[in-house]
Specification:
Layout (H helix, E strand, L loop, with lengths): L1 E5 L10 E4 L6 E4 L5 E8 L4 H14 L2 E8 L9 H5 L3 E9 L4 H18 L7 E3 L6 E5 L4 H7 L13 E4 L19 E5 L4 H11 L25 H15 L4 H8 L12 H11 L9 E6 L3 E6 L8 E5 L4 E4 L12 E6 L5 E5 L4 E3 L1 H9 L4 H8 L1
Antiparallel strand pairs: 1-8, 1-9, 2-3, 4-6, 4-7, 5-6, 10-11, 11-12, 12-16, 13-14, 13-15, 16-17
Helix pairs in contact: 8-9, 8-10
Length: 385
């Protein structure tokens, strides 16, 4: 069980966010929202100081600086014995940079996260980054739904606010459960399985020899392998989606649309420009096929998509309080029927999306046509023939 929340903390009245450090009486004034990143690490108590020092040095080599570290306040009195035996030592880091451009800082933070995951692993020492982001924090573990709120004290702190939440309960079937493999991952949470996984991972590895980026240049190779070792099918998909988002010059909805396309080949009703987009995108990425329901968020967008097989349930309500609730089953969340103004379900290949910047739900047809028209895909296809 896990939750993904916005990284916005309570403001101190000066426009900066204030965070009271665990076990300390002093305040740490953070930069304005969007100019710092934060994330929770799973570590060993015995080795954490050495790894934190190496992480700080790596951040500085990338033009970033660590503001502070914080021990995540937890209460393990209600969790099970198996979970307690494998419980990690959790530390939260806050990182900032000199560049005030949010997109540039997000790319720097992604490089830091990726290189840290590759370079700071010490044999015999625990090291896992749940998330490192300007907009989201991942709280997760071997916990039931009720245990989540009791275990993480932050979630009951009045100073902790959020404008979106992605909550996932998963009992692992094809992998042995662990704190690290709990959902959500860094960008997505997933219900189902990826049946094309071996081919997807192998083809992603093959692309590493030919991929290029004007933004990253030769440093792109330092982010390989894209799919990190010893991950579940969900973890592998999360790595690729995160990579497309930061290195592929795609918005989160387009990155999801690239990985989980509709059944476009033989659909005579699909607009030509949309079909041409899917044909162009298929040259860069083969489908990650389920049956799967994939939910995702980057702090601005939050949404869900059902793969083209359509074999996983997904229901959603919109209330007159301007709240959207989506769940994989009816009855997961109680809603007063009098407040419901829209009740529907996801169909195969369709996407449900909320843009918190524009403060609206974007319909599947509108969203995908906008993406299809964002570049001259039809012209590019003609030039390829």
């Amino acid at each position: 069980m896990s939750i993904k929340n916005s990284a916005q903390l309570k403001e101190d009245g000066t426009g900066n966010s204030a965070n009271k450090m665990n076990g300390s009486s002093h305040q740490i004034d953070l930069p304005p929202f969007g100019q710092y990143a934060t994330g929770i690490f799973f570590l060993d108590k015995l080795h954490h100081e050495g790894i934190e020092n190496k992480f700080t040095n790596l951040a500085e080599s990338l033009g970033l600086s660590v503001i502070c570290w914080r021990t995540v306040p937890t209460n393990n009195s209600t969790i099970g014995q198996v979970a307690r035996n494998s419980e990690p030592y959790m530390r939260q880091v806050f990182v900032t940079g000199d560049n005030t451009d949010e997109n540039h800082l997000a790319r720097q933070i992604f490089v830091l996260r990726k290189r840290a995951s590759h370079e700071l692993v010490v044999p015999g020492a625990r090291f896992y980054i749940c998330s490192l982001s300007l907009r989201t924090i991942v709280y997760k573990g071997l916990l039931t739904s009720n245990q989540l709120w009791e275990y993480f004290k932050d979630l009951s702190n009045p100073a902790f606010t959020t404008y979106l939440a992605l909550v996932h309960t998963r009992f692992s079937t094809n992998t042995f459960p662990s704190w690290e493999r709990a959902h959500p991952l860094r960008v997505l949470a997933h219900n189902g399985e990826i049946n094309t996984l071996r081919g997807n991972v192998n083809l992603m590895k093959a692309r590493e020899g030919v991929m290029k980026s004007e933004l990253f240049g030769d440093d792109l190779k330092k982010l390989y392998p894209v799919v990190e070792p010893n991950l579940s099918d969900s973890g592998s998909a999360d790595c690729v989606l995160e990579f497309l988002l930061h290195c592929g010059n795609r918005s989160l909805p387009e990155a999801v649309m690239t990985m989980v396309p509709e059944a476009w080949h033989n659909d005579p009703t699909m607009p030509k420009e949309k079909r041409d987009y899917y044909q162009w995108a298929s040259c860069a990425m083969e489908p990650w096929d389920g049956p799967a329901l994939v939910t995702f968020t980057d702090g601005r967008y939050i949404g869900a998509i059902l793969d083209r097989n359509g074999l996983r349930p997904s229901r959603f309500y919109v209330t007159n309080e301007n709240i959207l609730v989506m769940a994989s089953e009816v009855g997961v969340y109680d809603v007063d029927p009098e407040k419901v103004i829209l009740k529907s379900r996801l169909k195969p290949g369709r996407m449900l999306l909320v843009d918190t910047l524009e403060k609206r739900m974007i319909e599947d047809v509108e969203l995908k046509l906008k993406i299809a028209r964002s570049r001259p895909h039809s012209q590019w296809l003609k030039e390829m023939k």
